[in-house]
Design brief:
- It is a single chain.
- The protein has 451 residues and is mainly α.
- The protein contains 23 helices and no strands.
- The model has no long low-confidence stretch (mean pLDDT 89).
Length: 451
């Protein structure tokens, strides 16, 4: 009982400090992880076994961590090292791509293909944001897309805010489509043993259908505004060529090959048996080996704060799991739904979406995974159905507010640095309806396809 009280207090305190941003979130999660080890596992449980299970270093030594010879298995409780290593590897690869100008080249190449016309540019950048976010984290996608959008807006004389808002939403939508697109999906996939193909054929289908609705929605609310702001005729010969954005031609070719190889490895990992932690290490080593002169710079640029945040977070959630709190929460959802699958899905997707609009979707998804696992075992509901419901709710819900997802914060900050202020009211007025539309579409598709 004492351990449960400590676990809940630490968890709530962590969420409060993350939301208020008084202290950096990695510091908050690590301090709360330390308190969990001391107060929950030590004072409350007197269990060294709980500490060892939560730290979970033994999983790295297991052969299944690197290569699966048979069916994929669910990961054990505690720190999900597979997620940590995969994200690290992808971060190294993305920094290598950014160094050679890959993202700016891609954006400028597409702009040239549509002859710098604003409406085709608006549509293609939304699609580009969706597709890139399927393989690269949405923060990186928005960081470069928003910067290039502002650069093009100054050259072509249009307001970049509508484009940036639509790109943010599409990045979060694209992240929902694959296992590696958004951190909650990586955690869901590695924790429950789902492959890249599993996500593409389930959440990917939902995201593809939703994208059509999103393109129509943003065109209807922003199309006229963009046409009006881009009425001035511009001499396209004065615009920079896509090739001028490449800073290292040899490095550009190598980075493109590594990126393509990463996609192939991810798409086929269920067939090859290579786990996502192995794939992450392969792309990291390949990037560092081929850019050895810049290896130290690339490693320095990796976002270690996010990785530390994940580690601390997994320990705190481990405290809730070891003390049985998550089973109690699962039983509560089960009682409210009366065991009805349709009600259960509605609760999970809307609870996930609303919570993710205001708090970081990573800790929320991590908290919910053991809960949906318990609901599946208790009520006989297909676990994969609940997993896709959770993924769509957490990934899409974060789009509703300026603080709901990291991509939102980055996009707004990038615009603000160039003098384009996006206020809460302006943001929510455009993004909340889009979020509601996609969550509704997701729920209906889940009902029709899985029930």
């Amino acid at each position: 009982m004492v351990a449960q009280v400590f676990a809940v207090i630490i968890f709530i305190a962590m969420f409060v400090f993350i939301v208020t941003e008084i202290v950096e979130r990695h510091v908050v999660s690590l301090v709360c992880a330390l308190l969990t080890i001391i107060l929950v596992f030590g004072v409350g449980m007197h269990s060294m076994t709980a500490v060892i299970e939560t730290i979970n270093l033994k999983s790295i030594a297991a052969a299944e961590f690197w290569y699966l010879s048979g069916e994929s298995t669910e990961s054990s409780a505690g720190i999900n090292w597979e997620t940590i290593l995969f994200i690290f590897g992808m971060m190294v690869m993305v920094e290598g791509m950014a160094r050679v100008g890959f993202f700016r080249w891609l954006c400028m190449r597409i702009a040239k293909l549509v002859k710098y016309r604003v409406i085709p540019l608006f549509i293609t950048f939304m699609v580009l944001s969706t597709v890139l976010a399927m393989f690269i984290d949405s923060i990186t996608v928005i960081l470069f897309l928003a910067a290039v959008t502002i650069e093009l807006s100054q050259l072509l004389k249009f307001d970049p805010v509508p484009m940036i808002l639509s790109e943010i939403f599409c990045a979060n939508l694209g992240g929902s489509a694959t296992m590696c697109g958004d951190p909650p999906n990586i955690i869901i996939g590695t924790s429950l043993g789902y492959s890249f193909t599993d996500f593409v054929t389930n959440t990917g289908l939902i995201a593809a259908i939703s994208l059509i609705a999103v393109l129509v929605y943003f065109y209807l609310i922003f199309g006229r505004e963009l046409k009006k702001s881009a009425a001035e005729v511009i001499d396209h010969s004065s615009l920079p060529s896509p090739e001028s954005t490449i800073t290292d031609k040899k490095g550009f070719m190598v980075s493109s090959v590594i990126f393509a190889a990463a996609i192939v490895l991810l798409v086929t990992h269920a067939q090859t048996g290579l786990t996502v932690s192995t794939i992450g290490m392969i792309v990291a080593v390949a990037t560092l080996a081929t850019s050895w002169r810049y290896a130290a710079v690339l490693l320095k640029k990796v976002d270690y704060k996010t990785l530390l945040f994940f580690i601390g977070l997994f320990v705190v959630i481990g405290g809730l799991e070891q003390t049985g709190i998550l089973e109690i929460m699962a039983a509560f959802i089960g009682r409210i739904s009366g065991g009805n699958v349709m009600v259960m899905i509605a609760i999970i997707i809307w609870l996930s979406a609303i919570a993710s609009a205001f708090v970081d979707n990573i800790p929320f998804a991590t908290t919910m995974i053991p809960i949906i696992r318990s609901l599946s075992l208790t009520y006989g509901v297909d676990l994969s159905t609940l997993a896709w419901t959770l993924a769509m709710g957490t990934d899409i819900g974060g789009s509703a507010t300026p603080i709901g997802a990291s991509a939102n914060v980055v996009g707004i900050a990038t615009a603000a640095r160039e003098g384009y202020m996006i206020k809460w009211g302006q943001y929510c007025k455009k993004m909340v309806p889009a979020t509601v539309i996609v969550v509704l579409i997701s729920m209906l598709i889940i009902y029709v396809r899985y029930l």
